[in-house]
């Protein structure tokens, strides 16, 4: 993931003109050195100890790209050294750790935001605009399907709750953004299907209750071979006047009721609007730009940690529901 972040910095002029990479930290310094060479970062300080590198560089910002179990230490250390922090998702390995980091960021007076890059894509921005326009009426339900046979190797294949903790949060966060509602409760069933190459929890089905009686359902698997969906899931968004279908890529179909007669009411095609701001559709680069703007202006970044913890709460509530086989409130 560090390579993706460095590429976003290098390929985005407004970020490249603002950010100077001064250090790379890795438990394996040789990996950091190879990355520095790949991106022509000849002057950076490389080390295995974050506190030491921060002391040597006097950095202003830390980009946290570590595995979730190391996140609390990395973010706490960065905040203690007076750095703003942008972290990969999930923001913490538990709700308690997430709350701890929010408290530390507030006490330090630093910006702490999370990379939810999936909401910074054109499709999500477009369906959010359509929902906001009220052309589909009042939102009643969002249904998302995610089925991909992904052979990562490495730490993911050893994780507990791998789909919910490492991937589903993208769709959970995007659904929360599109709906503009708060998650209230969830019932979730988790499984590790026959043939799975993961240690635990490669599949899950969750029913979330959002505020204002909106339902959000998620069906997903990371070991479903033969018919991959988009990484962004397939979406069905239902309002009181119509429905939007999105394949997670480039195909949108939206219709609204156009009459009051007939067993099936006549329908009109609804155009799906383009994003308000094209600059908000570039994934990691857009998240980084939003974060840097917040540092400069004092505005809250869209994925600030004290809001993003609501997406994290959806994950852990789903995990708790799967464990107890009970409805869990958030």
Automatic annotation (TrEMBL):
Superkingdom of origin organism: Bacteria
Record-annotated GFO/IDH/MocA-like oxidoreductase domain positions: 124-244
Ranges of residues in domain Gfo/Idh/MocA-like oxidoreductase N-terminal: 17-111
InterPro entries attached to this UniProt entry: Gfo/Idh/MocA-like_OxRdtase_N, Gfo/Idh/MocA_oxidoreduct, GFO_IDH_MocA-like_dom, NAD(P)-bd_dom_sf
Pfam family membership, one: GFO_IDH_MocA
Entries under SUPFAM superfamilies matching the protein: Glyceraldehyde-3-phosphate dehydrogenase-like, C-terminal domain, NAD(P)-binding Rossmann-fold domains
Gene3D superfamilies cross-referenced by the UniProt entry: Dihydrodipicolinate Reductase, domain 2, NAD(P)-binding Rossmann-like Domain
PANTHER family registered for this protein in UniProt: CONSERVED EXPRESSED OXIDOREDUCTASE (EUROFUNG) (PTHR43708), OXIDOREDUCTASE (PTHR43708:SF8)
Name assigned to this protein: Dehydrogenase
Organism: Rhizobium herbae
